[in-house]
């Protein structure tokens, strides 16, 4: 039981760390939907209630709830349109909205009808932690704070009989919300990790474990689209020399072992911020980001040539590679342009005797 709870805790922690961007978007969408729905619901309620309850009139609290909710509706709408909105801004907006809801509920349940039992506090305590995604210590610090305010005001304003009933109901609502929120959070974490697992499988090359062609090209294109001119980069195409001869002489199974070893070697050698993938049978592509000078690229290429040769001893086969590099400095280009420059450089390296690298500057070739 303890090990299971510890596993759930680790999964939730990983969910909040790895899924930060998804959580941010989910909270924003939830806020947008809740505020939009709340405005419609309140207006509809104020319109039909007088026909159901004779003599009922909306109070100042009911009326003020509409513009406050509309403000948060527009804030969430603007945040959804912004691509670079900070997680902390989103968290702050959502928590502020929750605080406003608690304040309105306390006003309605306690000060609006001092002799009547409360109707909303336990529902809000139960629902809010299940709608928004926050770490427990964040959402329940806020919930417990307003529960204390609610309990204090209830005993100060209402009769003991009504106060005891309202406090009991709110405490039950708070305790139930912990259980429900825990279950929902666990299910969200499990669903996120399962989704990530299948996403990773669809993104990777089954043989080498690095990105496949489609996803490698996708991330390179995305980087080039968002890149700033001062961020120099280099696109490397690594082609294993005479690999067909290896397959023919040693068999495809051994060829697969060699390709897998090359993929692992390249993956260990490059930074996690670089983009690496297998784009063909014996071709690999690497996008090196944030290149301070051409010498860095040259050193990398020399090291790759050496690493491939080192694998020759492990597999008892003559291994080498050719590398074509498209070095991009300054203005932006499309993926097809930088790839063509790197491919031309690779062709030149092959034609010059293989087992070498050639670097072409992108903006000089387009």
Give your account of this protein's structure.
By secondary structure, the protein is of the alpha+beta class. The chain has two domains: 201 residues, no CATH class; 152 residues, Reverse transcriptase/Diguanylate cyclase domain (Alpha-Beta Plaits), CATH 3.30.70. The longest helix has 44 residues. 28% of the residues are buried.
Blueprint (SSEs and pairs):
Blueprint: H1 2-18, H2 20-52, H3 60-81, H4 87-112, H5 121-131, H6 136-157, H7 160-203, H8 213-226, E1 233-240, H9 243-250, H10 252-269, E2 275-278, E3 283-289, H11 294-315, E4 321-328, H12 335-351, E5 357-361
Parallel strand pairs: 4-5
Antiparallel strand pairs: 1-3, 1-4, 2-3
Helix pairs in contact: 1-7, 2-3, 2-4, 3-4, 4-6, 5-7, 6-7, 9-10, 10-11
What key attributes describe this structure?
5 strands, five-stranded mixed β-sheet, 12 helices, alpha+beta
- The best one-word shape is elongated
CA gyration radius, whole angstroms? 30 Å
The SS-based structural class is alpha+beta
Task: Identify low-pLDDT runs.
Answer: none
Helix content: 55-70%
- In whole angstroms, how far apart are the ends? 64 Å
Which series of helices and strands comes N to C?
A: HHHHHHHHEHHEEHEHE
The largest sheet is:
5 strands, mixed
Total strand count, please?
5
For the residues shown, what is the average pLDDT?
87
Write out the strand line-up for the largest beta sheet, numbering strands in chain order.
2-3-1-4-5
Strand content: 5-15%
Number of helices: 12
**Count of all domains:** 2
